[in-house]
Amino acid sequence: xxxxxxxxxxxxxxxxxxxxxxxxxxxxxxxxxxxxxxxxxxxxxxxxxxxxxxxxxxxxxxxxxxxxxxxxxxxxxxxxxxxxxxxxxxxxxxxxxxxxxxxxxxxxxxxxxxxxxxxxxxxxxxxxxxxxxxxxxxxxxxxxxxxxxxxxxxxxxxxxxxxxxxxxxxxxxxxxxxxxxxxxxxxxxxxxxxxxxxxxxxxxxxxxxxxxxxxxxxxxxxxxxxxxxxxxxxxxxxxxxxxxxxxxxxxxxxxxxxxxxxxxxxxxxxxxxxxxxxxxxxxxxxxxxxxxxxxxxxxxxxxxxxxxxxxxxxxxxxxxxxxxxxxxxxxxxxxxxxxxxxxxxxxxxxxxxxxxxxxxxxxxxxxxxxxxxxxxxxxxxxxxxxxxxxxxxxxxxxxxxxxxxxxxxxxxxxxxxxxxxxxxxxxxxxxxxxxxxxxxxxxxxxxxxxxxxxxxxxxxxxxxxxxxxxxxxxxxxxxxxxxxxxx
Length: 487
Prior knowledge:
Elements: H1 21-28, H2 32-54, H3 59-75, H4 77-90, E1 94-98, H5 101-115, E2 119-122, H6 126-131, H7 133-139, E3 143-146, H8 149-156, H9 173-187, H10 199-216, E4 219-222, E5 226-228, E6 233-238, H11 242-248, E7 252-258, E8 262-263, H12 266-280, E9 288-293, E10 308-314, H13 318-322, H14 338-342, H15 344-349, H16 360-371, H17 376-380, H18 390-394, H19 401-413, H20 418-434, H21 437-449, H22 462-465, H23 478-485
Parallel strand pairs: 1-10, 2-3, 2-4, 4-7, 5-8, 7-10
Antiparallel strand pairs: 5-6, 6-9
Helix pairs in contact: 2-12, 3-12, 9-10, 16-19
């Protein structure tokens, strides 16, 4: 694992070059279809999640347990990663360490080439999106086919994900039907003639399209929701069954997983298998929970799972995040997306405005730490929030997202520049004034006596006053009023 504290710049290339959040959001809020799609989807998921969580009397204790497990693991991550590597290797797998996105892409590309195959099927994976794996494979002549329904919609539509759990949340049924009818034939089996927008018809079209790829594929690429250090077991939870097909049918499985996805024991895993499904899909448990340890050959069970397994452990800036006492809590995230579904900013701006595969409140604190705050996009993300705190209230591992946002805003401000120099000068002047009561009283009296001459919008403060009214100055300072009226 890299020991460097310098964040790696590993965002998917498709997201680079985007405008800062305020510019992207200003455009998105005028898209009425987008806002209607988001409002309907997020409110539906939010209400279902609240009902699923309310069923558990010990939800708060589970939440605290998840927080403590994650914090303990992150404090001792080096030890648990070594234990994980030993267990995976002992079960017949191979472990590869990737310091950044470029190294991870080189490793995966080389592994696929070794098989002689020119196509892979993929389980939905945020880590592979983060590093831009599909683009890296395509550059080497290897086709990567997404098999998650929402990811398939995004891929066929030459689009970008806009939600952690439901990447195509910005699309409605009519748009999906049009994408299937127009694009499916270019990627494989075409959509049925006369395809309608009924969800069952759309799901059946996707099932038929993907079935051919599942049966033909010899290499699969996945992520993982969790990795159990004591046994080297990887876990993927999903609702459709596509993951199960990818994890069992191909001969070679390559899993790219962020180092923070480690949990020490099976007993620790049990906590998250209760909190993740309720927080994400509002289910008591996921319809498909796939777990694998090593290879079929090592288990002496012919035909049961891949015969070759590679685990690529991805740093890509995570070590740098660990070095930040406040910011490291972002690595507790289990990718449930509950914070997105309650966020008033996300609901109106959508996921694309965040310029990252990690949208919403968690993306606003995770992306700037993984990629650094050198770009306009990443420097703007900590401000993509009203700090209402709804995200913290629903987080199943109690990440205090508002605290981290404020912390990152301070880091952005400390970068310097003309605006920062002006701010420092103003704070220094205000500090001197507050330390000298006589001078402060004189300024207050002067301001009150000349209040009719003062502008409603002070020069240079247009960005602040555009949405706010400047308070009216009273006829006299409070200290003078108090001196005259106290008894």
